[in-house]
Amino acid sequence: DGGITQSPKYLFRKEGQNVTLSCEQNLNHDAMYWYRQDPGQGLRLIYYSQIVNDFQKGDIAEGYSVSREKKESFPLTVTSAQKNPTAFYLCASSLGPSGGRTDTQYFGPGTRLTVL
Amino acid sequence: AQSVTQLDSQVPVFEEAPVELRCNYSSSVSVYLFWYVQYPNQGLQLLLKYLSGSTLVESINGFEAEFNKSQTSFHLRKPSVHISDTAEYFCAVSALRGKLIFGQGTELSVKP
Fold this sequence. Notes:
The complex is a heterodimer of chains A (about 120) and B (about 110).
Chain A (H helix, E strand, L loop, with lengths): L3 E4 L2 E4 L5 E7 L5 E7 L5 E9 L2 E4 L6 E3 L9 E3 L8 E8 L11 E2 L3 E5 L1
Parallel strand pairs in A: 2-11
Antiparallel strand pairs in A: 1-3, 3-8, 4-5, 4-9, 5-6, 7-8, 9-10, 9-11
Chain B lengths: L2 E4 L3 E5 L4 E3 L1 E4 L6 E6 L5 E7 L5 E3 L5 E5 L4 E6 L8 E8 L5 E3 L3 E6 L1
């Protein structure tokens, strides 16, 4: 079955720690995205990547970092510089890579991060 | 620039009643619009999308949305809802480089 997997499903972090959220897809998509979801605020784009070894900041990139060393993987690190990291994090992918505006984005099941 | 406004944060409705979830957009480029559905603690699933052609688009589970350029709207409707339709619904507009701009979401709560 093709799809997007995210792990872990739940993650607890102490203040001052960095944590890495995993996102893997076997859809052979070029483009991948990370969103943050907070109640009543919809989804906000953190980072996106249209091709391997390239990525761009989204609207709320401060305190986050990413890498795109393989086509199927796009891990997100939440650093200690992120002041309010408790949220639901969603990874998505689309066909890409030309930034096709008609492409459907497919979402993973999400990771819920809680800072203790 | 693109933006999306979902006019209702919560919509309670009784089972078998009709429902409309409202979405208005603004876009400085050609418009591509999406509705996604999110069940509790899950990711988003595409419900339907408007790319071009007929302004009325339908999903496989009875939802439909109409693209109205003059009113800059893309409202989602269903003539008769079920308990299983209880979820959060997001409207989105396509921005440059494949990005999506999402509205704040509408919680649809279907009561028996």
